[in-house]
Amino acid sequence: MAGARLQFADLEPVGPGTPTGRYFRSFWQPVLRGKDLRAGRARPVEILGEKLTVYRGEDGVANVTAFRCPHRGTPLSIGWVEGDGLRCRYHGWKFDGAGQCTEQPNDDENFTHRIRIPKYPTQEYVGLIFAYLGDGEPPPFPRYPDLDQPGVILADPVEVLPCGFWNRFDNDHSHIPWVHRATAFRTGRKDLLLLRQEDVEETPYGWIGYRSVKGEKADGGRAFGIGRLTHFFMPNVRLFWAPTRAKGFEGRKLFDTKVVWTVPVNDTSHAAFDVTHTPIEGDEGQAYIESRTRQQEQEAETRWDLAEKVLAGDMTLEELPDDMGAYTSFAIEDYVTQVGQGPIAGRGREALAKSDARLILLRKLWLREVNALIDGMPMTQWKIPEKPLNLAASGQG
Ligand code: FES
Ligand SMILES: [Fe+2]
Q: Which residues surround the ion ligand 2 when the cut-off is CB under 5 Å?
């Protein structure tokens, strides 16, 4: 379709065959958090407008395959995991680890050799299960050197928000003193209240943003330290640093490296897979993991109920419980603004300002690449730097 010029609104649909769906599918994407899938269990997932079954074989290896049984369409996730394969609950057809049908127990004359379900290349990394859903050979699996350093790696409870993925992509840094105001006051984080500005530029991997206090040209990191930088890896991965918010570790001047994959579930909802690296090890690392996970996993069960109450006007963000962890209150604060914008935020009716530079650049890169894809032209081969970005950011590398 040479010459087709997509507009920004054309980038919202994500299903198979759509321009955005095709672009996303040319990269590995996370589909589920590893700890949410025990060995011998299967779950249905939806990602990029496509339903899938994710299961962990009895050998502990994660697999991604078709959502439905090819016999009569029963979801395979309600069947049984057997060895490294699956058996359908309806009539017992069995599929091996390669997706090949090996048993049709009710039929003497069977045609198992002709039945095969798709199996997608699958990898587990930093606590997440990734799949490659595109055509042909998958690209090399991308690793992030910042997450491959010694320290604690934690994958947070996956956030699924009932709004399109652009609502999160467009989440600029100038929202922080407003959206996160309640948390800033509750936790005494005065730095969060500073008005800020950001300069952004394209890089070989996507873009980098430099933040500074509004009105100060470049603050050299005085106000925000390493937190002044945001990196974005095309097509959908954001890396930044934030002071550790785990209870009992707040005063330690520790920074989490946060890497967030924003993945569309479908056209009007998205998932955020949030992984942090924190540079502590041994017993202290263990204590940190316990402090973070106990509270966060528990609070995740009810956090969206609270967010919906705020959206309904039944409570305000200032009324969140005093002892709520800051990871949870941050998530609730972002939920109410992004979900509140609408399932597909009224794009096209926006009034973009100079402070929207980040999203203007991101939209430009996306449009350029997706237009190249549908025109059959070469796309940018994005390159993740080989050295951890935190070394360069802290002046050590
Ligand atoms: S529907 Fe799966 S075996 Fe019949
Ligand atoms: Fe936020």
A: 334
The reported pLDDT for the residue numbered 86 is: 98
Instruction: Tell the CATH topology of 145-393.
Output: Naphthalene 1,2-dioxygenase Alpha Subunit; Chain A, domain 1 (3.90.380)
Q: What is the CB-side half-sphere exposure of residue 223 using CA atoms within 13 A?
A: 20
What class, spelled out in words, does domain 38-131 have in CATH?
mainly beta
The HSE-up count of residue 13 (CA atoms within 13 Å, CB side) is 8
122-125 sheet: strands from edge to edge: 29-33, 128-131, 122-125
Q: What's the gap in Å between 344 CA and the centre of ligand 2?
A: 18
| CA neighbor of 231 nearest in space, from 262, 254, 200 | 200
What is the 112 CA–ligand 1 centroid distance (Å)?
A: 12
How is residue 53 written in tokens? 């079954």
Residue ID of nearest Cα to ligand 1 atom 4:
91
Q: Give the 3-state secondary structure of residue 389.
A: helix
State the virtual CA torsion across 196, 197, 201, 206 in degrees, nearest 10: 40
Q: What is the pLDDT of residue 218?
A: 63
Alpha carbon of 391 to those of 227, 237, 258: distances in Å? 13, 19, 15
Q: What's the confidence (pLDDT) of residue 397?
A: 46
- Cα 68 to averaged position of ligand 1 atoms, centre (Å): 9
pLDDT along the chain (397 residues), means of 10: 73 96 98 98 98 98 98 98 98 98 92 97 98 96 97 97 95 93 93 91 96 75 79 97 86 91 98 97 95 92 98 98 94 97 76 87 96 96 94 60
Quote the pLDDT of residue 201.
Answer: 96
Which residue ranges make up each domain of the chain? 38-131, 145-393
Instruction: Note if the pTM is more than 0.70.
Output: yes
